[in-house]
Amino acid sequence: MVEESKTMKLKEEVCTSEPRTEYCQTNGDIRVHGKSSTVYIVPHKTITMDENMSRSVKPYARKDETNAMKRVTQWSIKTIQQAPNCTKNHSIPAVIFSTSGYTGNHFHEFSDTIIPLFLTCKQFNGQVQLLITDNKPWLILKHKPFLEKLSNYEIIDIDKDEELHCFPKVIVGLKRYDKDLTIDSMKEFRDFLRSSYSLERVKAIEIRDTSKQSLKVKKPRLLIVSRKRTRSFTNIPQIVKMAKGLGFKVLVKEGGRNMTRFANIVNSCDVLMGVHGAGLTNILFLPENAIFIQVVPYGDVELLATNAFGKVSEDMNIRYLEYKIRLEESSLVEEYPLDPSSIRKQDWEKQNVRLDIIRFRPILQNALELLVE
User: Fold this and answer.
1) In contact, 172 and 158? CB cutoff 8 Å
2) Are strands 75-79 and 53-57 parallel, antiparallel or unpaired?
3) Is there a contact between 60 and 104 (Cβ–Cβ < 8 Å)?
4) How far separated are the first and last CA of the chain, in Å rounded?
5) How many other CB atoms are there within 10 angstroms of residue 304's CB atom?
6) Which of 88, 214, 241, 367 could covalently link to 291 via disulfide, CB atoms 3.0 to 4.6 Å apart?
């Protein structure tokens, strides 16, 4: 939250408050002290003030979520006549952002950090210094190819840094759109990801027709995104057998922290299917014109699922198919055998899925037909 102690507007500082994020852009003589989480603005000599001004910002792009924001370090932005002396000078701008919040959830990493970072930093063409607060080293390692392409400079873990860094421009916080997984040009972002992870395929396969003879020549690749805990498929062998019978080459994989490996697996496939969950964020790596099949769990989840992945997949130039399971395909029917109506809304996250192969088969057939050139 941005707090204003005086209403004086200075050219050195422009703060923006939007429904889901807040960020401040500072220009001029800007000094950053990590250990005290403070950004000092030294005003031009022509500006006179009766007293100092101060704001506070939490640099994480999900300000509407209290549970996320309470984990984020608050930074002070102070306009001050006499600031501490610089110990390290930089000629490029800097961006301060937090890797706290809902980090650890793949969907939120992209919605709240990766896409906002791209939106904020793309203007600098690599000439930007990233300053991380609430640093999680495993996250930096996970997204290393993306971060290295975004900035030509080694990331600074600013919380532990004792230097007083001086920059000509500092942005505290990240820009973002109101909707998750959204940016003005998803093509531009996906092209950037493709380049970051050296993904070879731009477009999905095109087959002549769905005859067995054609599918022997060109066999589309189907990726089944699996899960170990909840919302996992409990009859994967049967799904694989049915899909192979239709003409697919089938892979079954679970996402992990090796983003480069999994991004390349996803990019090698023409169809991706999985039960609604954060792992479906990996559709970002699919080639254009690929098919995405979201399996919607039993319960009041349809709107959530469609909003999270259905609508945004169209912006990615990915064809979207949806399969809503019935109660008999959910493990919840075993937990509430006598009274299925007592299933609570929040229980949908706990279920596993046993796909009705006969009922699901037309969905995969439709996917094949969409791949016909």
Assistant:
1) no
2) antiparallel
3) no
4) 51
5) 14
6) 367
At 276, list the tokens.
């609604």
Lookup: tokens for 202? 């731009």
Tokens representing residue 178 in the block: 């109101």
Q: How many CA atoms lie within 13 A of 312 on its CB side?
A: 26
Task: Express each pLDDT in 27-63 by its tens digit.
Answer: 999 999 999 999 999 987 655 544 567 899 999 999 9
Number of other CB atoms surrounding residue 326 within 10 Å: 10
- Return the amino acid letter for 237: P
CA pair distance 159, 1, nearest whole angstrom: 20
Compute the half-sphere exposure of residue 8: CA atoms within 13 Å on the CB side of its CA: 15
Token readout for 69 is: 């924001």
Say if residues 57 and 22 touch (Cβ distance below 8 Å). yes
- The token duo for 211 is 């005859």
The pTM of this model reads: 0.91
Neighbours of 312 (CB within 10 A): 22
Burial class (CB in 10 A: 0-12, 13-18, 19+), 306: middle
Summarize pLDDT for 102-116 with one digit per residue, the tens.
999 999 999 999 999
Cα 262 to Cα 106: distance, rounded to the nearest angstrom: 13
Identify the CA nearest to 157 among candidates 128, 178, 132. 132
Strands 319-324 and 291-296: parallel
